[in-house]
Amino acid sequence: xxxxxxxxxxxxxxxxxGATIIDDVTFSVAPGEMLGVIGPNGAGKTTLFNLISGIAVxxxxxxxLDGADVTSAPVHRRARAGLGRTFQTSSLFPALSVAENVxxxxxxxxxxxxxxxxxxxxxDAASGVAAERLAEVGLAHHAATTAGVLSHGDKxxxxxxxxxxxxxxxxxxxxPMAGVAxxxxxxxxxxxxxxxxxxxxVLMVEHHLxxxxxxVDRVAVMHHGRLLAIGEPSEVVADPAVQxxxxxxxx
Amino acid sequence: xxxIVLLLVTGLGLGxxxxxVASGLSLIYGLMGVxxxxxxxFLTLGAFAGFELARRLGGDSWPALIASLVLGSxxxxxxxxxxxxxxxxxxxxRHIEQVLVTVGLSLATVALFEGIWGTDPIYVSAPAWFxxxxxxxxxxxxxxxxxxxxxxxxxxxGIVAFLRFTRYGLIIRAGVENRPMVTALGIDVRRAFTVVxxxxxxxxxxxxxxxxxxxxxxxxxxxGSLLIFAFIVTVIGGLGSLSGAAIASVVVAVLxxxxxxxxxxxxxxxxxxxxxxxxxxxxxxxxxxxHA
Lengths: 251, 292
What we know:
- Chain B: It is found in: Cell membrane.
- The complex is a heterodimer.
- By secondary structure, chain A is α/β, with parallel strands linked by helices.
- Chain A contains nine helices and ten strands.
- The radius of gyration of chain A is 18 Å and the shape is globular.
- By secondary structure, chain B is mainly α.
- In chain B, helix 1 packs antiparallel against helix 9, helix 1 packs across helix 10 (about 220-235) and helix 7 crosses helix 9.
- Chain B starts with a helix and ends in a 12-residue tail after the last helix.
- The interface of A and B includes residues 85, 95, 115 and 166 of A.
């Protein structure tokens, strides 16, 4: 018996105010696969992520997460079902300490019934997980630092540490390299590769095509809300329709 | 000198009342973006509940006072939690409707309170010590001021400790900063909304019982009159900032007392202060950026 896809999207459509933002998109992602999502600005990449994570609700079609239909489930329930994401702008809590940021993610994962008054002790399970994840991404020495003052590259690492602490099976990364200094791109790419190697399914929107194409197993191209092509990076890049869509755009 | 000390301590006492109302307003706005115009009703309801209980327990004894404070805050918390669960939750992210509903609730509850307890102020009795004075630096200070200041300080410390040292506190602090990400982590942030409403309602209910002793009476209008100043305090302190609300409560109330005593223009000075803060520092004393 074969495993269900980690993520399965069927005839997904999203329209708002008469404009169709996502139009009849169908694809699925196998467990442990890394899929890149590319396309010109306004192609619907972030909207697609919003539909998958539940921030926006699809007009029609279905979204299945590890065999369970989550098409209209609220955001927090999808997260509990094993979906994690980062945001294009920021997925951090700048005024909290680095350790508190990760702890929150760990406590969401381990929480169960949250007790209102129970103190988050340094010795409890969530704090232990938080410390481990910080060490994994190389931020242990910054645990007590306020997250807002970290360098851009370190902030991105912190977001990854939070994702790891939340331990999702499927991860959506929305432009993880955006704004990262060129010297830090390689290091961040390695962190993403490690996250993926741990057996997680990763979907990633990224404009740094050179980095993206070196990381992913397959790449999906969005254009005007439609799925233009999906396949191995070398095939997709050679596809004339994809080249036409990017014509005139700085790739 | 003694006049200045008296005005200062009285101002601190009034500031304590403002803070008990403003702390809830600020937390609720900070986490949920809700301007809760019904917050004064939680205060009034707490005050009436406290009055009814104290009356049945014999009015002016210490146990009656303490029981009325406990009941006032419990009733305030319950009313606030119910308001969140039954009304606000259905209007998630619909800010105009939230304002309409909370304004409507406040008007309706004032009418309800007037229907039950009448439109005249009801005078409350307290332990004799409350009406006596203690001499401080030559000034004879009414004792209820000290109780107000002490209770407000305890509430401030309690809320700060809750936010800093509990799991819900962490969720609330994170939610104030980046609510979408909290839900993306798998946390049902709506539960934190109910908790925050209940905390705010408890502080307001406590403030209601104390206000009835500060002013000497309870009436259906009690909450509304304090709510205006509490909102001003919340804006001056920076919407969403608890310590900002605490600082602004003291500044506004002390300034109001002095302006009232020397020139009789306390309310005017407060409104001018508000206008000045909005012009020069729109985010308030400790507020972060103003978001749309």
